[in-house]
Write a structure and sequence with these properties.
The chain is an all-alpha fold. The chain has two domains: 57 residues, no CATH class; 28 residues. It is built from five helices and no strands. It is elongated and about 55 Å long.
Length: 99
Amino acid sequence: MPSGDKSKYSSKQKRQARHIEKGYESRGLSEGEAAGRAWATVNKMTGGGRKGGSGHKWTNKGPARRGGRIGGRASAARPAKARSASARKAARTRARRRG
């Protein structure tokens, strides 16, 4: 478990951290490293532990979205010729749809 008192975090933040931690563990990180990264992600998204009170509670969802993008491996494993053909096809499609 990462250091620090977690009592000031809301139940939603604790739940988010658990889900993020499971994702990191499924990608092969140790429990401690996964927990630390999960809490860092929650802190970046919500600005740390929540205090009571009414009003708008902002959430920056960028860190969570970025963490889910693992891509690149499949594309990198393909030959350059195939990647180039895909890029040309995509460019033609975009041009056609633009009008």
